[in-house]
């Protein structure tokens, strides 16, 4: 279960969602309580990124430990050290691997073993053949044993109705219950699932009325570059603030949004004019760096940049089309000179990317005649 344990790593400028869980790593005969990070692309960080196949080998070798011996020396880094005394663990390499595989499915929004089991149960209830029951039973047994009692999301009944249903009359359910299933118990399980289906069908949709939470388009990386000339088809370079697309702000025309940003940041009017007239956006930023900044600039800069981006795309419809073509993708904008404006492989705040997404939304609204 992922719950609220959400993290990510960045690979090639793209955020890879992940989660974590506690685990023991055995290194040099000593055990270390640590976090196991699991990512949507199937990589697991257990003191180094490994694939699922490599993770299985780490489990089999005991590097990721599920066997905790009496008297084993344990450390929680910089927190405490102790020895195992009468340790109990319900995990085995097979169980932990199965749970991690389920987690990868959940991170990708794909059916995990529990959801696949419940889908097989639905097939059986619609067509109650022994073949379909056997398929549902196999799917139930594929759920990690530690997770089976959560399968129905019912902590009063746990997974007993599921066990009775897949075992069938005369069959033997999970060893926790042991006795063969009576006809009466089986019929009560069928009734349970029929009532459960009725309740589920009556639930209101959880899909937000105004659309999905996550973007449907893949994230787009806008790498740092130094565009010096306009192009017939600039592509992503046209989204850069230093792309040579003049913007008119309060009657003053600046060679690019970057020129305007750096000029407006400068307190002295003469220095401001020099920045605005710089040959390139890089030269403008260099001149601005040597000038005195306007008072309170750091608090106003996001509002200024928003105004500049709105002006740029309003005054250059061809560039607006490039921005609109990104649909609802997350825009990861790199800026080698600023971790505030750039994403920079996940190390920055990506404010330019975020403001581009805001302006894009406004352009979509204008096109739709909204607002």
What does this structure look like?
With 371 residues, this protein is of the alpha+beta class. The chain has helices at 52-61, 93-107, 113-126, 130-141, 160-167, 183-201, 257-265, 269-276, 281-289, 297-315, 317-324, 351-368; strands spanning 7-11, 14-27, 30-39, 44-45, 49-50, 64-65, 73-76, 80-83, 220-222, 247-249, 252-254, 331-333. The strands form 3 sheets. Strands 1, 2, 3, 4, 5, 6, 7 and 8 form an 8-stranded mixed β-sheet that branches. Strand 7 (73-76) and strand 8 form a beta hairpin. Helix 4 (130-141) crosses helix 5 (160-167) and helix 7 packs antiparallel against helix 10. The longest helix has 19 residues, at 183-201.
Summarize the structure.
The chain has 371 residues and is of the alpha+beta class. The protein contains twelve helices and twelve strands.
């Amino acid at each position: 279960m992922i719950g609220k344990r959400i993290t990510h790593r960045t690979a090639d400028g793209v955020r890879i969602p992940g989660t974590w869980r506690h685990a023991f790593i055995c290194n040099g005969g000593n055990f270390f309580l640590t976090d196991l990070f699991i990512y949507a692309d199937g990589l697991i960080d257990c003191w180094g990124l490994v694939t699922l196949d490599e993770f299985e080998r780490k489990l089999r070798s005991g590097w990721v430990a599920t066997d905790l011996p009496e008297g084993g020396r344990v450390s929680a880094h910089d927190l405490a050290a102790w020895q195992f005394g009468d340790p109990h663990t319900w995990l085995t390499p097979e169980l932990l691997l199965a749970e991690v595989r389920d987690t990868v499915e959940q991170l990708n929004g794909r059916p995990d073993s529990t959801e696949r089991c419940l889908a097989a149960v639905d097939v059986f209830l619609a067509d109650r053949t022994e073949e379909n029951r056997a398929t549902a039973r196999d799917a139930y047994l594929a759920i990690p044993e530690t997770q089976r009692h959560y399968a129905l999301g019912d902590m009063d009944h746990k997974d007993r109705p599921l066990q009775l249903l897949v075992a069938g009359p005369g069959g033997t359910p999970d060893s926790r219950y042991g006795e063969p299933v009576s006809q009466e118990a089986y019929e009560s399980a069928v009734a349970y699932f029929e009532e459960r289906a009725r309740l589920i069908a009556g639930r209101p949709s959880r899909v937000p009325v105004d659309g999905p939470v996550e973007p449907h388009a893949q994230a787009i990386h806008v790498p740092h570059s130094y565009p010096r000339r306009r192009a017939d088809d600039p592509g992503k370079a046209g989204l850069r603030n230093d792309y040579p697309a003049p913007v008119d702000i309060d009657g003053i025309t600046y060679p690019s949004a970057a020129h305007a940003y750096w000029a407006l940041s400068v307190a002295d009017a003469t220095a401001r004019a020099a920045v605005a007239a710089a040959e390139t956006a890089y030269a403008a930023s260099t001149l601005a760096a040597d000038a005195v900044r306007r008072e309170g600039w750091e608090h106003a800069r996001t509002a200024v940049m928003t105004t500049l981006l709105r002006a740029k795309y309003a005054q250059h419809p061809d560039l607006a089309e490039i921005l609109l073509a990104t649909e609802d993708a997350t825009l990861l904008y790199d800026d080698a000179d600023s971790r505030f404006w750039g994403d920079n492989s996940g190390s920055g705040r990506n404010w330019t990317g975020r403001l581009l997404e805001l302006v894009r939304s406004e352009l979509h609204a204008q096109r739709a005649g909204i607002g």
